[in-house]
Amino acid sequence: MKKTYVIDTNVLIQAPYALHCFEDNDLVIPLVVVEELDGLKKADGEKGANARMAVRMLEVYRGKGNLLTGVSLEDGGIIRIEKNFVHEELPPDLPEEKADNRILKVCQGLSVQLGETSQVVLVTKDLVLRLKAQIIGIRAEDFITEQISESDAQYTGRCEAYIPEELVKDFKKKGVAVSDVYVSDEEGNHTELEAVENEFVILKADQSTKKTLLGRVSGKKILPLEYKKSKPYGVSPRNVGQYFMQEALMTSAQEAPLVIIQGMAGTAKTFYSLVVGMEKVYNNPNGEYRRIMVCRPNTQFDDDIGYLPGSEQEKIAPLMRPIIDNLEQILDSDDKDRYEDESMLSDKIQEVFERSVIQTEALNFIRGRSIAKTYLIIDEAQNMTPNQAKGIITRAGKDTKIILLGDPHQIDKPFLDERTNGLSYAAKCMKGSSYCWQITLSAEECERSVLAMDAIHRL
User: Fold this and answer.
1) 230 within domain boundaries
2) Residue at 425 is within a domain
3) 75 is in which domain, residue-wise?
4) In the sheet where 182-184 sits, what is the strand order?
5) Beta-carbon neighbour count of residue 370 at 10 Å?
6) 233: buried, middle or exposed (CB in 10 Å: 19+, 13-18, 0-12)?
7) What is the pTM assigned to this prediction?
8) For residue 454, pLDDT beyond 90
9) Residue 254 clears pLDDT 90, i.e. is over it
10) What is the pLDDT of residue 286?
11) Residue 143 near residue 18 (C-beta atoms within 8 A)
12) Residue 389 belongs to domain with CATH number
């Protein structure tokens, strides 16, 4: 049965190309949605840019016919703007003046008008609006084109396999073929490893489980880690996940231009990324990167930064405090004496910023730029939309390395969840790319404190 999809404003604000994602079904844009787009088109950042893009797309269709009666879409459906049903009655506890409820009126009116000839479906990112639609008997769905599957969400960027005892020495020298290692199920059956490009592998000798080797899939081979013995800025890995993370971060931008690191709080994602960045920029005389640039996508960055007083750096300084906290540990590794002279420690951090070794920027100011020869850290990347993730990754210029860090289970931005955020979307789309290295750190690899690790398991 052909469906009629009623599109909410928040769908077009997050994904203006959504108008092309409904195959041969009909699309209805309530007039109140057009009004909301008009009110948002002058907004700063991604929200305003996407509102303007959506309006331009509607203008293109307007040029092809009358949007009030319907214009044909490329895939066979029809798009139209609906201005009727303003007198449709809703339950008394749903006030008429609210925009969401005006959209519900359109859905209810269309259901009566179309009857059984077409199923009316409201598409919205707003969970509360979906609940209200259910109350009045209207089918409502999330916009799922950007949503990753449950199986994609399970990918951790690493796996375990067994290697024949006689190949252990060969692996240490030159690696082994993927076909030479195997996985074993609970019944002891052996199957060939289904390797993903750049996936990290924990290899166990099949005759001696105490022999554990760490490697990475490269083409049809599993290669040993190149930077296993490295100590960037004097820091050594403390667990397997950090060895894999270090390998991805230390590898050059030519070979690993995109690194995606996921993990719970306390797994040292930000700390280790900064450590490697400081090693590359501060201690590396070869000039591999010009600078470290740090961004933390946050609701305030895109929506409220223009209203805060001061310069850009003064506006985003409170949101960059976690970066300062990590730098305090990096610049003074002595746990006992680190905070005895607070002013000296503060001077060290200030010097790093004054020399432009590290720069901090708001996410919406990166739009339209081409960033070259930069070690670019996007912290809390789970708060990006898929469109923002695409925009960031496509900003990479020559010799730039992009590191996306975050925990998909800690979303702070409205209309995003574990399977629709930009971090998860990028991880799914870039899985298997020769240019992308991924690793997910486990709860057991929390290094913040014994309390933090205990809380991860208990809370």
Assistant:
1) no
2) yes
3) 3-141
4) 176-177, 221-224, 208-218, 200-205, 158-163, 182-184, 190-192
5) 10
6) middle
7) 0.86
8) no
9) yes
10) 78
11) yes
12) 3.40.50.300
